[in-house]
Write a structure and sequence with these properties.
Layout: E1 15-20, E2 23-26, H1 27-39, H2 45-56, H3 67-79, E3 112-114, E4 123-126, H4 133-143, E5 155-162, E6 165-174, H5 180-186, H6 190-196, E7 200-208, E8 212-214, H7 217-237, E9 243-249, H8 256-260, E10 264-268, E11 286-292, H9 297-301
Parallel strand pairs: 3-8, 7-9
Antiparallel strand pairs: 1-2, 4-5, 5-6, 6-7, 9-11, 10-11
């Protein structure tokens, strides 16, 4: 009897016409997800996304799985017809949809009017995961014109104190993926940006409490925080940041304190939100300011070493 040998066919990895959050979809990803669904028929989409992240090595720099992003990636593949996900077993709550406002915390609102030199030195506390975080959230919700929004992704929260009196709040989060003037200023291409975007962050909130009246305080706070944020990011996320940016609503502010603190004006946003149609501006134009945290920031962000 003639024996028949079975040879395994290794299919080439091919890129698909789909990209999500910097990840180019491939036939390898599709086959892996199909295999996971076949081996785990009772798994929810949530469970499948975690297994996918572990095998594909899709993790944050601090080791946490990117399962929330992976679920959206898998849903994109599902909608494009590359895979067929199991029906949803239950709606997983998203931080983006949580509308519950933070509780109001009462504090001393006695007016403070003084010269900057008379209240120095200030104390800066990174309050995320601390007893001060509830107070931070409350102050932003009550006194910042944008209110409090729960951050998604990497983020830090700071409070500045004059002795024991809170005087300011600042929040920083993961940077938006594509900002034309910033990308041209750094000089990176799309692939390099995708690999190193986690090395920059942006200032999402800055609040000097309304009963605080101290000239030059805002620029002093920005300068101080710029000196400590990279090391704090390293402690929480196991990597530093080398550049920070912010977006200033030109209908409300002139960016004076950022200019005084040495931030560089790079240009304006186009005012195009995600729901903009036909590239027609549907939100206010923002001025883009950036601040390098090291002299060799550009070399590092372009893939070199410090």
């Amino acid at each position: 009897m003639r024996s028949h040998k079975i040879y395994a066919t290794v299919l080439p990895i091919m890129k698909l016409d789909l990209k999500y959050r910097g990840r180019m979809a491939t036939t390898k990803d599709v086959e892996l997800i199909k295999k996971l669904m076949l081996q785990n028929p009772e798994d929810s989409r949530h469970a499948l996304s975690k297994k996918f992240c572990k095998i594909a090595g899709w993790v944050q720099p601090n080791g946490c799985l990117r399962d929330m992003v992976a679920r959206s990636y898998m849903l994109s593949l599902h909608r494009a017809g590359y895979i067929k996900l199991p029906p949803r077993k239950g709606k997983v709550p998203s931080p983006l949809t949580r509308k519950k406002k933070p509780p109001l915390v009462e504090i001393d609102k006695t007016s403070l009017k003084a010269k900057l030199k008379n209240i120095l030195p200030l104390d800066f506390i990174q309050v995320r995961r601390s007893r001060y975080e509830i107070l931070f959230n409350s102050l932003i919700e009550e006194h910042h014109y944008l209110g409090y929004t729960r951050p998604v992704g990497e983020h830090l929260k700071y409070m500045a104190f004059a002795k024991d009196k809170p005087i300011a709040c600042l929040a920083f989060s993961s940077a938006p993926r594509h900002i034309g003037p910033r990308d041209r200023f750094i000089g990176w291409d799309q692939d390099t940006r995708g690999k190193n975007i986690h090395l920059i962050c942006y200032n999402t909130r800055f609040l000097i409490l309304p009963w605080i009246n101290v000239k030059y305080l805002a620029s002093h706070i920005l300068s101080r925080v710029a000196k400590i944020i990279s090391a704090d990011w390293q402690k929480i996320y196991n990597h530093p940041v080398y550049y920070i940016e912010t977006f200033i609503d030109k209908t409300r502010f002139f960016g004076t304190c950022y200019k005084a603190a040495g931030w560089v004006y790079l240009g304006d946003t186009k005012g195009l939100g995600k729901d903009s149609k036909d590239k027609i501006p549907n939100r206010s134009i923002k001025a883009i300011y950036g601040y390098p945290l090291s002299k060799d920031f550009r070399k590092i962000l372009l893939g070199g070493k410090s």
